[in-house]
Design goal:
This protein is α/β, with parallel strands linked by helices and 255 residues long. It has one domain (23-251): Alpha/Beta hydrolase fold, catalytic domain (Rossmann fold, 3-Layer(aba) Sandwich), CATH 3.40.50.1820. 35% of the residues lie in helices and 22% in strands. The chain has helices at residues 63-77, 92-95, 109-127, 142-152, 175-188, 206-219, 239-251, and strands spanning 23-30, 37-44, 57-61, 82-86, 135-140, 163-167, 195-203, 225-234. The longest helix has 19 residues, at 109-127.
Length: 255
């Protein structure tokens, strides 16, 4: 299975002196579903990558944090992909997760998913480009929990993304609900025709994610390409390596 090589030189944000082969832009969208303005950071590879309509698109939750590291990775590896970093607009606790034991104000995850699949995807593919069959969703922590929610919320053949990348998901904050997502899907469907990368930190949400991964593996879903992987490190510290590995895994399945 081909994975992206990690190249972090110059991946850190903030020096303002980096030159990119591709182009970066910032825009905003107003969501009808959530009533919130979301700022988007977008990366588009150079014209030599081919028609934009043929390119995979990686949607990155918490884009204010993880967009720049992923851009650094794809630039260093010359990976031809569009990146859309969706900034949280201060609403990640509301938008990513249901009510839970770790943070207040949850419960907006269904509306946020409607924003992604009914509004944002159409905006991106209509104004920037991207192949509808090569969409990828990445999230970390509460964002990782949202990725799992999104995965199990749609029926086979209706999935909005072809690959789901959940990094050290916060499912220990909502175990009953998180297990119900998967159980309800399994009770209705034998197929899960996507690629799923589930990662977890040895000094983070290791136990909860390992157990969740085992449940998924034991289902033996048809057409699922599944990798679960532990990373040595802290909850936030593993993300750069996870991004490199998980996006490489996702794009290995691209058409």
């Amino acid at each position: 299975m081909a994975l992206l090589a990690l190249g972090f030189a110059g991946c850190g944000g903030g020096d303002g002196g980096s030159s990119f082969e591709g182009s970066i832009d910032v825009a905003s969208v107003i969501s009808r579903s959530t009533g919130t303005v979301y700022y988007l950071s977008t990366y588009v590879p150079p014209a030599s990558a081919g028609p934009r309509s043929s390119l995979p698109v990686v949607y990155v939750l918490d884009g204010e944090t993880w967009f720049e590291p992923l851009v650094g990775i794809v630039e260093s590896t010359h990976t031809r992909v569009i990146i859309v970093g969706v900034r949280g607009s201060g609403q990640r606790n509301r938008d990513f997760v249901p009510g839970n034991s770790c943070t207040p104000d949850g419960g907006g995850h269904a509306a946020y998913f409607d924003f992604l699949r009914q509004e944002l995807i159409a905006h991106v593919e209509g104004t920037i480009g991207g192949d509808p069959d090569q969409r990828v969703l990445f999230g970390h922590s509460h964002g990782g929990s949202f990725v799992l929610y999104a995965l199990f919320s749609e029926s086979p053949g209706q999935h909005s993304f072809m690959a789901y990348l959940a990094s050290d998901a916060s499912i220990s904050c909502m175990p009953t609900v998180a297990y119900a997502w998967e159980r309800d899907y399994a009770s209705a469907h034998r197929e899960l025709p996507v690629r799923l990368h589930l990662s977890f930190a040895t000094l983070g949400n290791y136990a909860a994610n390992l157990e969740y991964a085992e449940v998924i593996a034991q289902r033996s879903y048809e057409r699922l390409v599944f990798v679960s992987q532990a990373y040595t490190g802290t909850h936030g510290g593993i993300v750069p390596q996870v991004l490199a590995d998980a996006v490489g895994f996702a794009l290995a399945g691209a058409a």
